[in-house]
Design a protein that fits this description.
AB_hydrolase_1; AB hydrolase-1 domain-containing protein; 6 strands; Rossmann fold; alpha/beta; AB_hydrolase_fold
């Protein structure tokens, strides 16, 4: 038996991630092309499912800010949503007070509109979104993450706990909600790319269930918030009626743009 045949699927994934890391990182240059593709496909994107006006809170990636999520929020506004930034400046990573501030922002929006809020988190922002939904599930309509590293080895839970031990800063994660990789108790969608040059794709796969799904796209990590296929999928997910969530449908032409995440 060859050495490759003895590798477990997890070991194969880790080997693939390591072997392709330089190539995937180089492909992050696609982000500028993806932004150009967003501008070019605006007429087509207007054909995506439109919204019902409910509020959406968008949380940026590590070292990102509200400016970095502006294209996504502008698109959501055009599609009929009340899209809002997180208003916490640059996302400098897990630190004391972040989760409390996000909770206050969520509470403000939910009370302002009298409706549950959908959360969209890009990369690290997706971890915040998932944990917010665990802390305040009655205020969250659904969670959509874009290339968020909530699974893997070591687990994000172990990394964040180590951060708290080293710095003494309490990040504010719920202590009784289980590991970060556990989906929140609301409909949850993880959108990821196997050619993501920053976050390994298998770190972004959620445990699929009746209200949790994965959607695979072809995108760079830095382009996830502007890639047209991502924006279409986000619009499709947000347009579902509250309380009537169904998994993403890949049939027909969609199969050309959205690979089977279980392959």
């Amino acid at each position: 038996m060859s050495h490759a045949a003895q590798l477990t699927p997890t070991a194969l994934d880790e080997f693939w991630n390591l072997a392709t890391a330089p190539w995937r990182l180089a492909l992050e240059s696609r982000a500028s092309w993806e932004f150009g593709a967003l501008l070019a496909t605006q007429p087509l994107l207007t054909m995506a499912p439109h919204g019902d006006g409910h509020p959406v809170l968008v949380l940026p990636r590590l070292l990102g800010c509200d400016f970095s999520t502006q294209p996504l929020r502008s698109f959501l506004s055009q599609m009929g949503y009340e899209a809002h930034p997180w208003e916490l400046g640059v996302n400098m990573g897990p630190r004391a007070g972040v989760m409390s501030a996000c909770l206050r922002r969520l509470d403000t929006l939910e009370k302002r509109y009298g409706r549950k809020v959908s959360l969209i988190g890009w990369s690290l922002g997706g971890l915040y979104a998932r944990e917010l939904a665990k802390l305040a599930p009655d205020q969250v309509r659904q969670v959509i993450t874009l290339g968020s590293p909530f699974a893997g080895h070591p687990s994000p839970t172990e990394i964040w706990n180590a951060y708290e031990d080293l710095t003494g800063d309490h990040i504010g994660l719920p202590k009784n909600s289980g590991p970060l990789e556990t989906p929140p108790p609301v409909p949850t969608t993880s959108i990821y790319s196997r050619t993501d040059g920053i976050v390994p794709w298998n770190s972004s796969q959620t445990h699929q269930g009746p209200a949790a799904e994965n959607i695979e796209v072809e995108s760079s990590h830095l382009g996830l918030a502007v890639n047209p296929t991502v924006l279409y999928a986000v619009a499709d997910r947000l347009a579902q009626s509250e309380g009537d969530w169904k998994p993403f449908e890949r049939s027909g032409l969609r199969e050309l743009f959205y690979p089977d995440p279980t392959r």
